C-alpha cells in the first residue's frame, strides 16, 4: 500500500483496488465497514461466524469462527487466494455479554476474552506476517470500545477488560510491524445505534448515555465506518498505535 507522500496524490486514499478483509461483517458496524470499502472501490472478503447475504457486494464471503485456529488460517489463506494478497484488515468481530459483576461466570469471561482478545491477537499477528512477507506494507484496524477507557457501563465490565487488552495489544503490534510499513490502529465507538448496544441495555441507561453525549444522539454504523476507512487508507500513512475516539464527545481523550 503506497503512502501519501510516496508518489501518491494527497487526494488519493489508495482504497481503489485495495485488498481488504472485514471480519464481523454480517451486521452492525462490520456490515457498514464492508459496504464502505466496496463503495470505495476495494476488493473485499467479508467474514462472520454467521452467514452473510450473497448480495453483500463483497468479492467473496467466508464463514469463520475466529476462536478456531484452523478457521483463522483458512480465512487468511482464502482471502489471499481470492484477492491475490492482503492490504487491509478491518477486524470488527466481537462479542458482548452483559452481566453484573456478581453474576459473571467463567464461561462469560472465557467467551468474551477468547473472541475479543485471544482470537484478535492471532488473527492480526498472522495477517501482519502475511503482509510482511508481501513486502508492501499494510493496514490493520481493530474495533475496541469506549469501555477500554471507562471500564464499561450496563454490565459490560468483562467486555471492557477484553477491549482494553485489545488496545494494548494493537500498540504492541504497531511497534513490532511498523518497520515493515504496517500500521496498527483501533477505533473506539461510543453509543452507536446497533443491536449490540440496544438489545440488552435499558431505555433509562441508553437515555443517560445520550444525554451525556455532547452531540445529543446515538452515532450510526456508517459514521464509525468512515473512521475505519480513514485508518485503512493511504491518508493515515503516518498514524499507528492510535485509538480513534468516535463517540460524539461522550468521552474526551
UniProtKB/TrEMBL annotation:
Family (UniProt): Belongs to the short-chain dehydrogenases/reductases (SDR) family.
Organism: Streptomyces triticagri
Name the record gives this protein: SDR family NAD(P)-dependent oxidoreductase
Keyword Nucleus: no
Record keywords, A-Z: Oxidoreductase
N-terminal signal peptide: none
Keyword set includes Nucleotidyltransferase: no
GO terms for MF: oxidoreductase activity, acting on the CH-OH group of donors, NAD or NADP as acceptor
Pfam families: adh_short_C2
Amino acid at each position: 500500500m503506497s503512502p501519501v507522500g510516496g508518489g501518491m496524490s494527497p487526494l488519493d486514499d489508495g482504497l481503489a483496488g485495495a485488498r481488504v478483509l472485514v471480519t464481523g461483517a454480517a451486521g452492525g458496524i462490520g456490515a457498514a465497514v464492508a459496504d464502505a470499502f466496496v463503495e470505495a472501490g476495494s476488493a473485499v472478503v467479508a467474514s462472520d461466524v454467521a452467514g452473510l447475504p450473497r448480495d453483500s457486494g463483497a468479492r467473496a464471503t467466508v464463514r469463520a469462527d475466529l476462536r478456531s485456529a484452523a478457521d483463522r488460517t483458512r480465512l487468511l489463506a482464502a482471502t489471499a487466494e481470492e484477492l491475490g494478497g492482503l492490504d487491509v484488515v478491518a477486524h470488527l468481530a466481537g462479542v458482548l455479554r452483559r452481566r453484573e459483576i456478581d453474576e459473571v461466570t467463567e464461561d462469560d469471561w472465557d467467551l468474551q476474552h477468547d473472541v475479543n482478545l485471544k482470537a484478535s491477537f492471532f488473527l492480526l499477528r498472522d495477517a501482519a506476517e502475511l503482509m510482511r512477507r508481501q513486502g508492501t506494507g499494510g493496514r490493520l484496524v481493530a474495533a475496541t470500545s469506549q469501555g477500554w477507557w471507562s471500564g464499561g457501563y450496563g454490565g459490560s465490565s468483562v467486555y471492557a477488560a477484553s477491549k482494553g487488552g485489545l488496545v494494548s495489544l494493537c500498540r504492541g503490534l504497531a511497534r513490532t510491524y511498523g518497520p515493515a510499513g504496517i500500521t496498527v490502529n483501533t477505533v473506539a465507538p461510543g453509543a452507536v445505534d446497533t443491536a449490540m448496544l440496544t438489545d440488552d441495555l435499558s431505555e433509562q441507561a441508553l437515555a443517560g448515555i445520550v444525554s451525556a453525549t455532547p452531540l445529543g444522539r446515538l452515532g450510526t454504523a456508517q459514521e464509525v465506518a468512515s473512521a475505519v476507512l480513514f485508518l485503512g487508507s493511504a491518508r493515515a500513512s503516518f498514524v499507528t498505535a492510535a485509538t480513534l475516539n468516535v463517540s460524539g464527545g461522550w468521552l474526551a481523550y
